[in-house]
Amino acid sequence: MTVFQAGRVMDASQQTSARSAAALVAVFAVVCGLLLASCSRAPKAPERPAANGSPTAPTVELSAKQLELVKVEAVGEQDFTQEKIAIGNIDFNEDRSVQVFTPYQGKIISAFGQLGQAVHKGQPLYTVQSPDLLQAESTLIAAAGLLDLDNRALARAQKLYPEQGFAQKDLEQAKSDQMTAEVALKAARQAVLVFGKSEAEIDSMVARRQLDPVLIVPSPISGMITARNAQVGLLVQPGETPAPYVVSDTSTMWMLADATEADSAAFHRGDRVEVTVMALPGRVFDGRISTIGASLDPSVHTLQMRAEVRDPEHLLRSGMLANFVIQTGESRGGAALSEEGVVREPDGTMTAWVTTDRRHFTQRKLTIGTSHDGYDQVLAGVRPGELAVTKGAVFLDNMLNASPED
Length: 406
Fold this sequence. Notes:
Number of strands: 23
Oligomer: single chain
Number of domains: 3
CATH architecture of the largest domain: Beta Barrel
CATH class of the largest domain: Mainly Beta
Distance between the termini: 67 Å
Largest sheet: 9 strands, antiparallel
């Protein structure tokens, strides 16, 4: 009897343990279910079929509060100029720059022009004491004296000849000498004129029999003094570098741009250029490509181009760093999306976010053409009229790429 009762007690205890184990299993199942549900709730919303025909496209759903961080607008359409970007620098127009050398050797005795000074054609830049000029003036005065002597001899011969006091051959010789002296004087005057002396100055030297060895070197063009190496007492010679002065017409400047090898085939002579420099924000200078290099720089694989840029206000300075936008073709129409609505992904692709209900947003891959005035030309990926994020696209990308731990 006792054994039977004990057996019954043992059976009741086992039943109680079984019920406890079942309860624990149920609790564990509930916890596991909650964990699985939590793990399935990643920041990415369920993928939906893409409107552009791809099998699936990443989609996110925004709350009303999150919608305040983005701006949605219809994709526009506008004309885009086909253009390329290059960098380079500004330089003087060498076709309109002149190195002002002395025509004859000598010593600089005065220098008038200052660096950056505007000068006009014919304005004196410096003076040189030239032994060559001194020799030419000496020859001039001697020729003038000889002509005076021959003129008097001819006059005396003509006076005496009728009275038979002068031979015919002597008269003819006097005429010949006088003509020779006239020619010599004309040649001497021309020699001095070459040095820049005027007719009035030559007449004064001849009349006073006084030499003027100072050679005035004027500016050959109107422009700006862009280099000055003249010093008083410096011995200068024709063609010896550096020139005492360099004068440049700065109404046009050169653009020297370096284009990448990949873009080198897109450029042509005559292409329009828009130039901007950091020193003058908002100012755009127009020009045209005038020269394209025949070869690339083998060390950096860039092609140098040159354009003449108009600068009537003389605002550009040689050596300025500049950005160049070069028009390489006719304008083309296309979908226009704000640059803030385009995201560059880590793999280099360009994406945007589109929506139909302003709540669910789908990521699209884009093919970008050119850019202008804050808009990117979209060749493929979105169409004009579609609703797209134009501000805050990076926020949507961050939501899509956030990890579950975040």
